[in-house]
Amino acid sequence: MLTLASKLKRDDGVRGLRASNPASDSTRRVSVRDKLLVKEVAELEANLPCTCKVNFPDPNKLHYFQLTVIPDEGYYQGGKFQFEIEVPDAYNMVPPKVKCLTRIWHPNITETGEICLSLLREHSIDGTGWAPTRTLK
């Protein structure tokens, strides 16, 4: 997402102008999560299939976005499914929180939209849970 990357550069420039005031510098630091998300969201958008679309309600908040999936084949063909993705502050040590906003019958999605996948769990019995080497893609 280019808007946040340019915002971060602009903030760095403003920070350079305010170097005489160290208190303002410490309050405007960019989190590790946000630095990772700039790169990962750009990669995600570049490699997203044509049946998926990412929507950022607030372009300055890369840690919250929605994913719309419209399958073009299979059992769910013609459906439109929306997912809400929220990336916690401790990302990439903890997985993103994913919730299905569309009511659907699926063995891995509860009635309230919670996603049940070991990949999205911080700790998993089978060892396939979240790891810091994984990305949003």
UniProtKB/TrEMBL annotation:
Give the EC number(s) under which this enzyme is classified.
Answer: 2.3.2.34
Which InterPro entries does UniProt cross-reference here? UBC, UBQ-conjugating_AS, UBQ-conjugating_enzyme/RWD
Q: Which domain of life is it from?
A: Eukaryota
| List of catalytic residues | 116 (glycyl thioester intermediate)
GO annotation, biological process: protein neddylation
Q: Which GO terms describe its molecular function?
A: ATP binding; NEDD8 conjugating enzyme activity
Q: Where is the UBC core domain?
A: 32-137
Q: Which Gene3D superfamilies match?
A: Ubiquitin Conjugating Enzyme (3.10.110.10)
State if Protein transport is listed as a keyword. Answer: no
> What SMART domains does UniProt report for this protein, alphabetically?
UBCc (SM00212)
The UniProt keywords, alphabetically, are: ATP-binding, Nucleotide-binding, Transferase, Ubl conjugation pathway
Kind of enzyme, top EC level?
transferase
Catalytic reactions on record: [E1 NEDD8-activating enzyme]-S-[NEDD8 protein]-yl-L-cysteine + [E2 NEDD8-conjugating enzyme]-L-cysteine = [E1 NEDD8-activating enzyme]-L-cysteine + [E2 NEDD8-conjugating enzyme]-S-[NEDD8-protein]-yl-L-cysteine
Report what the protein is called: E2 NEDD8-conjugating enzyme
The organism named in the record is Chlamydotis macqueenii (Macqueen's bustard)
